[in-house]
Amino acid sequence: MRIGIDARKIADFGIGTYIRNLLRELVALGDEYVAFAPADAALPPGVEHVVVDVPHYSIRELIAVGRAADRARLDLFHAPHYVVPLTKVPLVVTVHDLIHLRHPNPLARLYARRMIGRAVRKARRVLTVSETVKREIEQTFGAKEVIVAPNGCDHVGSSLVVGRSSGLSASPTNDQRPTTNYFLYVGNDKPHKNVGLVVEAAKRIGIPLVLVGAPFERFGGRGFVSDAELAALYRGAIALVMPSREEGFGLPALEAMRCGTAVITSTAPALVEVTGDAALHVATSVEALAEAMSRMMNDAAFRASMIARGEARARHFTWKRCAQIVRDAYFDLRYR
Quick check: pTM over 0.70? Predict the structure, then answer.
């Protein structure tokens, strides 16, 4: 099969991680892949590159990407986000979450509802990353046969030792972890992430908090970092703290577990689904977060048990498994 993938967000933090790792593993499984991406996009070897660079969330992107897909002689086009192009090529879409339906801007909410609804109607297959989001898509848009292909976390290896820019010493094994003196937050600064709560909780217990994944102008943070730097930051932290009101999956929590780091999350359904009993789930309040952070910092036995559970759970989430489920969905369409 000749399969096109919209890779214009390949350099992004969240969805970019999905695109980069899915493409790499799909190529390893075989078939012919065409990535539609900006000229400077870093693509895995073996992927054909069609240059497309148009504004996201615009009418123009629907037309430009659609025309490029029509010219590329594809058997299938995979949109790894809910905006699907105007094309004659059969479509597969990945809907990672429905958080945009709760956006504070009413126009943004309307746009998201229309685009997600359109994607669900037009796509031959709808993919998502958790059972939580699958149920929500089915209930909200009446979709049937939504396929769950969970994200992986093996791109952030537990043996990575790069740490110069983070100020951490090398730590090749869990028995040689550096002395920890900070908590870690990984993600963006959107309202549903509750970054302000964890900042206040860290201040309350008097422990530094490192923010990674966005500029965080109001707090001061690290911005985007490489997988190697991220692994070093995970491994040097007392724990990752992820107090989101809602998530579609919660990849940072899984990445932290992969790196042998304890995890504190909210009780958002997707976070509980992904982390299971390998994380400490707490209410989204400064008091609850501060109490959980203090416990993780002061109770060495509890923290060690969370780390062990997390490492065991994370081993089940691989990008190869994700890619195999996605590829099976492609081929199921071919023979229908």
Answer: yes
